[in-house]
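Issue: ligand-bound run for iron/sulfur cluster - logging full I/O for the record.

Environment: standard queue, default settings, no custom constraints.

Inputs:
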Amino acid sequence: MYAPETDAAHLISFGLFALQHRGQESAGIAVSDGETVTVSKDMGLVSQVFDEKSLAGLPGHLGIGHTRYSTTGSTTWNNAQPTFRQVGATGLALGHNGNLINTVELDERIGPQAGSSDSELMLQAIALEVQDGRADGRQLERALIKALPLFKGAFSLVIMDQGHVIGVRDPHGFRPLSIGRLEAGGWVFASETAALDLVGARFVRDVEPGEMVVIDASGLRSFRPFAPAEPRLCVFEFVYFARPDSRLYGQNIHAARQNMGRLLASEAPVAAEVVVPVPESGIPAAQGFSAASGIPYADGLVKNRYVGRTFIEPSQMLRDRGIRLKLNPIPATLDGKRVVLVDDSIVRGSTTRQLVAMVREAGALEIHLRISSPPYRWPCFYGMDTADRSKLLAAHKSVEEIGAYLACDSLAYLSLDGLLSATGAARDGFCTACLSGSYPTTLPTNGHKLALEAER
Ligand code: SF4
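Outputs:
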């Protein structure tokens, strides 16, 4: 955020609340008053990390913020972001959404000060260029133009020094990043448009794939530091990641998810008395399924909204505990009924198996599971924590085998064709690697996302 005469830290904390779903392990804010960059970060939710007192200790009119979901590096304070380096008189802070695929090469190139995550590696590569450059106030943007082409993979970045805030998207644009204009004057970058609403900003446009946008006292400047590439926004942003009130490729996410449910009903119809969503991720698709099939929609599972999203917690043990804390059935909806149970995805299958058992125990006569995305068969190297293929339920099983494992009466997934048309966006603008096995980049040379962490 660059917001002259405003207390940026408070507004940034609002934005982080809007983006809490994207990462719940740690939260952080870096600000500058034009002279000094100050960083505050800790493990936990935004509400646990920041209060009036800690925000008051972050003076300045520009800054960046981050909520973390670990895809490389372990869940420790050191890996919380923004990550920070002091280079002479220049304070540098960086927040990263995504995952690099060339960490080993970058690590070898940069050497021992590199840090313990791909985000630290990037900041160090940038810091080395800042150190070698002329200190004329434009050193950060020149350093980025040199360092950014070294990075391969998925990275939407916000980077700052004392006087500039810079937003960058990798050439494929795997992860989103939007630009908003603050009503009170100034500019803001955000991973999702929903965060713009919260800070009182109007959506202006997306940072384009391969674009670097610099914001400072003179306004907004755009650069193209990368070789051009085809846009490949993560299709799972539409399925799962993004908030329903956000817009991507100009499309409303909630409406796209309802379309997924509608198409699923026409691709895989079934006779039943009730359509029940797995809250909250399955709600819009269940609404669409119900509307298209004419089968009534009802709430059959109650979510404890004070427990985090199970999928993005970092270990299986925590995920298993999370599931039991998270959902409880409503027997009055389920008892004696043939139930269409709708969810948006199955990744590891542990949640879904327990859910099916829970719905059965609550009295459902039949459970017809409908999933509003295709089977998740391939690991993601671009920012979803699924890089170990052996953990993916659909990697080595047919749909029939998955249905048998989950102990449901029938199982059907939305086709890839259906998913892409449900988005309402151009079909060739997406990464679908985890669903199709067709990767937009070379695969990571380290072969495993934790190689960097293991080395440290
Ligand atoms: S592999 Fe899947 S989850 Fe990863 S970026 Fe591509 S579509 Fe998204």
